[in-house]
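User: Please predict the structure of the protein below. I'd like the answer in structure-token form so I can feed it into my own downstream comparison script.

Assistant: Understood. Taking the following sequence of 505 residues as input:
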Amino acid sequence: MKKTRASKKTAIVIRADASVRTGTGHVMRCLALTQALANAGKNVVLAMAECPEALTRKIKSSGMSTQKIKSRPGSLKDAEETAKFAARKNATWVVVDGYIFSDKYQDALKKAGLRLLFIDDFGHCPSYPSDIILNQNLYAGTHFYPETAPFTRILLGTQYVLLRNEFSPYSNWRRQVPEKASKLLVTLGGSDPDNTTLKIIRGIKASKLGLEVKIVAGGANPHLKSLEKEIKKSPNLQILKNVSNMPELMAWADIVITSGGSTCWETCFMGLPNIIIYCADNQKPIALSLDEAGAAINLGQNSELVEKKFISTLKSLANDFEARSRMSEKGRLLVDGRGADRIIYAMGGLFLRKASKDDCKFIWELSNSKPVRDVSFTRDPIPWDHHKGWFDRTLADKNCFFCIAETAGGKPAGQVRFRMNGPDAVISTSLALEFRGKGYGSILIFEASNALFSSTGVKTVHAYIKNENKGSLKSFQKAGFRQTDLDRFALEKESLHLIMEKPAE
């Protein structure tokens, strides 16, 4: 059988970068995951090739460990260095976040024997050999990932939004929307290379609204002097540098102006009405989707910002109680703050792979275990010689789709098997006793069935379950199977007949 990792404490390595050019969003959302994993008792290291000094200090001050990657970011040498570091830390998982990381980079980490969680925004790779793909955006969809490994788990949507620890105290907080807005927050990310903040300051001054304004300049912002010069004679405008109390500032504000990055998910969680001026092409889909959902106003790209339109939008929103109330409510419905918990649950679950000859003894022991024999159609113990012959034939049979469920560390936990006959297949599944009753069954049935649909010509999967096997029935129904008319086999075996059909494309 596949060897599991040693009992030495394992780690999780997170690989991401930040710079003035690329911004700080990838590292900031990875910091959120790092904190959540650490809260769950995991040993986590944030590996970075590039990161502004101020942000590095912030990461270390929060108690997180870091590792310097010396290779060119995104290169195969980078992947090799990261894999070697992961091996030294006895890592089970590597988490990767960034547009510079290719499918070849992912493949190199997988070939090093690592579990891989890849954080993505718009499907920039031609293929994804990762164990889990995470896209936390409102516009996320499976169409971004037509080429994945057979058993890749895809986590999509704002239910998986990552928020840092400082947002936790606001989980049950609700915004009181004032009749008229008087407090404005401006935050355009960690770097703002185009100095869009300066344009916004000038627009705010020209609006003559008399708002109290707090302007956040990130740790990688190279334009601090020009911003300070611009507000010199404006006592109602204040610049805050490299802040650590963003939730408090968002709770203080009545309106925020952002650039369309991951900060938008924070403003949604805080129920803060948002005017988005996106500063990079990859931020455009966030701006468009939030505008369409009614949780923000999209004013378009920073290079095309018209001051007159900016002023009229700001004035209108500041004076429109109903519009701000709607935006606040819709934003809060999108992000509930439990995204990191859902991701950690997915990482801690069971994973599917194709069966191999090394699984023969495990399947024999599983098949002969009392819980499995008790619900089987034939209850007699299976002799080893009989099993060995059956296993070899089954593994070689092109009409059998045979999967093993295992932990992230490689410990086998169960099996899902399909016997194919043209467009139909019959499923058989079993879990080891220690993994029962934890909700794994329905997930494995669902994922294995979808892997079968995507890689074969099967259109319908049939399940036959003994009438008294209520636990198995519940798992299949939760996975999307439905009861249908009894066929001859079901009648003969006094069992229920359930089916799952391939989803329409």
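That's the full token string. The CA atoms of residues 214 and 238 lie 5 Å apart.
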